[in-house]
Amino acid sequence: MVANADISKAMEIHLGALFDELPPMPDFRPGIRRAPARHFNLSQKDTELALKNALRYIPGKWHQALAPEFLDELMNRGRVYGYRFRPAGAIKGQPIEEYRGNCIEGKAFQVMVDNNLDFDVALYPYELVTYGETGQVCQNWMQYRLIQRYLEELTAEQTLVMASGHPVGLFASSPEAPRVIITNALMVGCFDDPENWHRAAALGVANYGQMTAGGWMYIGPQGIVHGTYSTILNAGRAKLGIPPDQDLAGRLFVTSGLGGMSGAQGKAVVIANGVGIIAEVDHSRIQSRLDQGWIDQVTESPAEAFTAARECQRKRRGYAIAFYGNVVDLLEYAARQDIQIDLLSDQTSCHAAYEGGYCPQGISFEERTELLRSGHARFRELVDASLRRHYELIKALAARGTYFFDYGNSFLKAVYDAGITDICRNGENPLDGFIFQSYVEDIMGPILFDYGYGPFRWVCLSGKDEDLAKTDRAAMACINPERRFQDRDNYIWIRDALKNRLVVGSRARILYQDALGRMTIALKFNEMVRNGEIGPVMLGRDHHDTGGTDSPFRETANVRDGSNIMADMATHCFAGNAARGMSLVALHNGGGVGIGKAINGGFGLVLDGSTRVDAVIRRAIPWDVMGGVARRAWARNEASIETCIQYNELRRGADHITLPYLADEGLVSDSVNNAFAKASRR
Ligand SMILES: NC(=O)c1ccc[n+]([C@@H]2O[C@H](COP(=O)([O-])OP(=O)(O)OC[C@H]3O[C@@H](n4cnc5c(N)ncnc54)[C@H](O)[C@@H]3O)[C@@H](O)[C@H]2O)c1
Description:
The chain is an alpha/beta fold. It has helices at residues 4-9, 15-18, 44-55, 63-77, 104-116, 141-153, 194-203, 222-239, 264-271, 283-292, 302-314, 327-337, 365-374, 376-399, 411-417, 439-447, 465-477, 485-496, 515-530, 568-579, 611-634, 638-650, 665-681; strands at residues 129-131, 135-136, 158-163, 166-172, 180-184, 252-256, 275-280, 297-299, 319-324, 343-344, 403-404, 454-460, 508-513, 537-541, 549-550, 584-589, 599-607. Strands 3, 4, 5, 12, 13, 14, 15, 16 and 17 form a nine-stranded mixed beta sheet that branches. Strand 3 and strand 4 form a beta hairpin. The structure holds nicotinamide-adenine-dinucleotide (NAD).
């Protein structure tokens, strides 16, 4: 058998080389949120396997000491996090020049990883969860330490390979290849379900990357503020008859969740000048949003919440109220009192409802955390009962004119999983969708994604406020607000971004843009880096985008040619971005809707001011978006067809997209009717 001493000798990068002695257990800072226990249910044999797996990172001399500690973490917290290897104190994305490295990308990705684990940014920083209840940068602190070392060593001739949080190693590549390739939780089809994932995660072989958590591109709740703002504003225009040049003045939006992404809802509704009541069961999350100034008022009383809302609606003043309590209780009150809610949604973590993402009615947040540890079967029953009641209330409110939409958190699917089949359009299963639409199906898909507008973002790696202000101004100058109403909204967004104080963590900005808009802005930024006007910039996007994600439950919900159960687009997007020289490419299972329900990918591109990067921008950024628009055009989405027609014209000789011929509906139905009639006569 190979000896552990020989294994150590065969690697230059390993924990034994990083630590002379076992590091002390760091203190856990009071007030920092901790992940709930992840329901330990491994068999004895699997527990042995999980322990052996975790010890793979550990030099043999420390196995004796760490075996009981890792076992304790596994059995009591559901995972081996390796807390002992976490750096003491706060982690923050520092200015890039403070990191060591052999290439700019190696240093830049250290900024991004650390920002994803910042106490102010991450949901459960000690458990490496950035957002979305379970979305992790990587699985454990041993991996974090190795990733950091690999990024320090990485050269412009190498690629770091990351498999579900595990750094497989550095491999020779070329300056044109990605510096980092990441996959998370890609499971073999017949095992691609939450139960098998839960086991694999406990065994330490699967990481839930969500989207930008495991793709190292999270920029705090700002990342979602723009999308939320666009969604509710356009919901108002599409469903409440608000004209395109007006906002949500006087309108009431009721929802839940003030967590990682959902925490954007208060800020977004105020920017859209509407009034929001957001239910949240965890007071610490309300406090974070209050401290940021993203919430104006907190109350435990539904009556007080609705009275304050009514007053602000009357004054047509933007205002965000946190209701400290369960959303189902809030809706019970609204239904009983016959209160008119204009827009209604939900952003609890229903993609992981049984893992703690949805707090059932009737128990407090603290009781939920305890029950997750001590009575998982009971917890599931309570979640199901609460979701059924939640659904009844939504139905009652919708019958009185409230517009309800699923906010991409798998809420409708969770209700179906709780036993409600009448939520399905076909009354049986989700194949034909649900009776309520998702926000992508109804709003974001046709109004934004079909044109290629999506959550483009950047991080000023210098950490300087003035760099962010300069990039904001430069991006604004690239937008023509007269072209479409979407451009006008985006122009106003970036014009007011600084004033709206959106930054949490690294100096970052989100701006919805279409393919060529993103390319123009990226080229401008790279020129500014080249001229020394600003420091280097990290470009990226949310996976939740036109071309980045295949999910019939969300991003591709408005793809209606039957291909919404296919994941070819996201896979091509990932591969095409790698082939075109993005600095980082990522592909994940799950994302915002849960394991088996989405394949999603993203990228990172470090702008270093070089002409090489100019060339990458020109070939990769349009591809990243237009692959998605092409797929939507092929599904006969009208705005996408129009966008592709213009694109083929503009990019003649460079790109060429296949477009669908449109069949006459009458011809099709007559032909099929006749054929079926003939067949039935046979
Ligand atoms: N719409 C989008 O664009 C989008 C983007 C990202 C994530 N999501 C999805 O939205 C969900 C939320 O994401 P997140 O990052 O905010 O997750 P999160 O877990 O950080 O936040 C959810 C919040 O809901 C609260 N909550 C749970 N049950 C509740 C209840 N019954 N009543 C009131 N509050 C309750 C939790 O305490 C938590 O703070 C996830 O499913 C995520 O995948 C949507």
